[in-house]
Amino acid sequence: MTRGPLGVTGTLRRLPRWLGYLCQLCGRGAVMDLGPMRKSYRGDREAFEETHLASLDPMKQFASWFEEAVQCPDIGEANAMCLATCTRDGKPSARMLLLKGFGQDGFRFFTNYESRKGKELDSNPFASLVFYWEPLHRQVGPGAAGAGVAGRAKGSTRPARTPQQVRVEGLVQRLPEPEAESYFHSRPKSSQIGAVVSRQSSVIPDREYLRKKNEELEQLYREQEVPKPTYCTGD
Predict the structure, then answer these.
(1) What is the dihedral of CA 110, 101, 159, 35, to 10 degrees?
(2) Residues 52 and 154: beta-carbon distance below 8 Å
(3) For the chain, what is the mean pLDDT?
(4) Are 128 and 86 in contact, with CB atoms under 8 Å apart?
(5) What angle (nearest 5°) sits at the alpha carbon of residue 96, between those of residues 191 and 157?
(6) How high is the pLDDT of residue 38?
């Protein structure tokens, strides 16, 4: 069955009766009640406790969880995460990006100073990260955050358990320029050019403008190194 509300077309197979009804309501401008969308979760008998942690060191515990996510064939990008920032006056925003490193000094990601997230971090340098590894199902008990990193932990996999996620909160600081420079030039040249062309969160005439600019820079830097823009950095 194919529907296209708001110009988005998707194919739904074996559409549940209640979902088909909600789609019809949505098409008529009614509010969609998603209350029936739920899974059965298990009780305290399978809850994850603090004693199940691989380590009381939060970064070592995260490394254990991350390794498990990387090895899971059903997770395409284990380092994909949601970064939530906030303006100084309390207006939040969130987006997906990729983790590029972690250690005792924290979590590393690279961004554009001129983007919305870059400007918000400049004015309010506190943020949160969420890693959502849906195929790794866990049931979390009261002691799950005992290691200092709130999230899910090790255990057997069962379809009825809640999806694994890890939450991180804290202060964001800029990485040293040499480290940002090194990362920028480790990217494929096409990605470097793309970073130069795409001035994130800025208004452009149309997509053709980006295509032409990209072609110009491909010609310009065909035989030379792409200089890192001052607005591309790491946090």
Answers:
(1) -30
(2) yes
(3) 76
(4) no
(5) 115
(6) 79
The confidence band for 100, taking pLDDT boundaries of 50, 70 and 90, is very high
Is the pLDDT at 107 greater than 90? The verdict is yes
Least confident of 24-33, 39-48, 159-168: 39-48
- Report pLDDT digits (tens) over 217-234: 888 888 888 888 777 765
What tokens appear for 124 in the block? 């309010």
* Two structure tokens written together for 31: 């509010």
- How remote is the C-alpha of 65 from its chain's centroid? 16
Q: Are strands 110-112 and 10-11 parallel, antiparallel or unpaired?
A: unpaired
Over residues 44-52, mean pLDDT = 68
HEC string of the chain? CEECHHHCCEECCCCCHHHHHHHHHHHCCCCCCCCCCCCCCCCHHHCECHHHCCCCCHHHHHHHHHHHHHHCCCCCCCCEEEEEEECCCCCEEEEEEECCEEECCEEECEEECCCHHHHHHHHCCEEEEEEEEEEEEECECCCCCCCCCEECCCCCCCCCCEEEEEEEEEECCCCCHHHHHHHHHHCCHHHHHHHHHCCCCCCCCCHHHHHHHHHHHHHHCCCCCCCCCCCEEEC
Measured CA to CA, the distance from residue 20 to residue 77 in angstroms comes to 32
| Alpha-carbon torsion (46, 51, 52, 53), positive or negative | positive
153, 61 contact by CB (below 8 A) = yes
Rg from Cα positions in the chain: 22
Q: How far apart are CA 82 and CA 127, in angstroms?
A: 10
